[in-house]
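Report of the visiting student (M.T.), summer placement. My assignment was to run the structure pipeline on a short list of targets and document each run. The first record concerns S-(hydroxymethyl)glutathione dehydrogenase.
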Amino acid sequence: MASTEGQVITCKAAVAYEPNKPLVIEDVQVAPPQAGEVRIKILFTALCHTDAYTWSGKDPEGLFPCILGHEAAGIVESVGEGVSEVKPGDHVIPCYQAECRECKFCKSGKTNLCGKVRAATGVGIMMNDRKTRFSINGKPIYHFMGTSTFSQYSVVHDVSVAKIDPSAPLEKVCLLGCGVPTGLGAVWNTAKVEPGSIVAVFGLGTVGLAVAEGAKAAGASRIIGIDIDNNKFKRAKDFGVTEFINPKDHEKPIQQVIVDQTDGGVDYSFECIGNVSVMRAALECCHKGWGTSVIVGVAASGQEISTRPFQLVTGRVWKGTAFGGFKSRSQVPWLVDKYMKKEIKVDEYITHNLTLGEINKAFDLMHEGGCLRCVLTMH
Ligand SMILES: NC(=O)c1ccc[n+]([C@@H]2O[C@H](COP(=O)([O-])OP(=O)(O)OC[C@H]3O[C@@H](n4cnc5c(N)ncnc54)[C@H](O)[C@@H]3O)[C@@H](O)[C@H]2O)c1
Ligand SMILES: CCCCCCO
Ligand SMILES: [Zn+2]
Ligand SMILES: [Zn+2]
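After the run finished, the C-alpha cells were exported:
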C-alpha cells in the first residue's frame, strides 16, 4: 500500500490559468480518489495539438484554470472504493475516451464512444461529487478530458484507465494515449481500408503519419501525402507515404489535382489537420460511387464543413473518428502489445524529450515543423 494512500498529495503540475498565457508550474494538491476513481503517478506525458487547441481558448469546453494533457503513461498510486480492474502498482495509460462496457454506446457494438463519464469530463469535474480533485491552497483547478496528465499525479475515472504490460517502456507507450492510435484506427476501424486501395492523407504530422503507417499495413497500393510543408515528405516516406503533393505547387484546387492523378479519385482520404476547407477537398478528391473521407482533425468551435450534396448523392461517404474508433480499456493494451512485438511504430514519432519544467518550450517546439511528438519526463 502506498504511504500516500488516503492522503492529499502535493506535487508539481503545469497550470493553464488563462487562454494563451504561459503554463505555470505550481505546487498542486491532488485529493485521494473517491469511489470509482484512480489516482495515477504520471511518469511521462506527450503534447498533442488538442491540448494547444483548448489552451488557445477556441474550445468552448475549455475551462480555466485547468491542467491540460491527455497522452501519457504512469503507475497506479491508489484506488477508490469499488475499483476492481486496477490496483496500486499497475502500469496504466489514462484514456480520454472512456469505456464502461455498460452504457448504450458501449453496448451498441457500433462505436467506441462511451457516455458514462462524459457529463463530468466535458466540464472539468469528477462524476462522484461533481467537484475537482485538483486545488491550489483550496482554490479548485479544473480537470481536462478526464485525464489532466500535465501533473505528476492525476485522478481519473476507473473506466478511463487502461492496464498495460508492465514491461512496456512508459516513456514510449505514453504516445498510445492519443495521436498514434487515432491515425492507425482511422484506417483500420473507421475506414476499414482494403488491400490495393489508393489513399490520400492530408497533413503529415503525427496523426497523418500514423494514418500512412496504418494504410501501409492495410496493403494500400498508393499512399498520397499532402502537406504545405515540403520538409515533411522525406520523413513521411519512412511511414509509408509513396507520393507527395504540395497544394502550393498547383494552380488547380488540390482535389482536382488528386482526381487527375488517380483516374477519378482515391478510395479513401483522411483529413489530419483540423481545417474545414481541407476537409472539403479531402471529400471531393474521393472516387465517385465509393470514395470515403474520414475527418480526423479537430476544427475550431463553430467551424462548419460544406460540400455540394451531389458529392454524397453520387456515392461518396463522409465520416469522422474519435481515437481511431478504438475501445480504450480493451484495445490500448492490445496496441501496447503490438508495439512490444514491433508490429507498430512508436519511437519514430518521438522527436523531442524534455521535462515538465520545460513544458512551455515543448509547446513552442510543437508548433515548429520538425517536431512530431515531444515527451515530458514528469519526475
Ligand atoms: N479525432 C481525434 O481523435 C484526434 C486525435 C488526435 C489529434 N486530433 C487532431 O488531429 C489533427 C492533427 O494532429 P497532429 O498532431 O498530427 O497535428 P500537426 O500540426 O503535427 O500536423 C498537421 C500537419 O498539417 C499540415 N498542414 C497544415 N495546414 C495544411 C493545409 N492547408 N494543407 C495541407 N497540410 C497542412 C502541417 O504542415 C502539419 O504537417 C489536429 O487537429 C488534432 O487536434 C484528432
Ligand atoms: C474526442 C475526439 C477528439 C479527441 C482529440 C484528442 O486529441
Ligand atoms: Zn490528442
Ligand atoms: Zn460506456
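Residues 125 and 132 are 5 Å apart (CA to CA). DSSP finds twelve helices and 17 strands in the chain. I thank the supervising group for their guidance throughout the placement.
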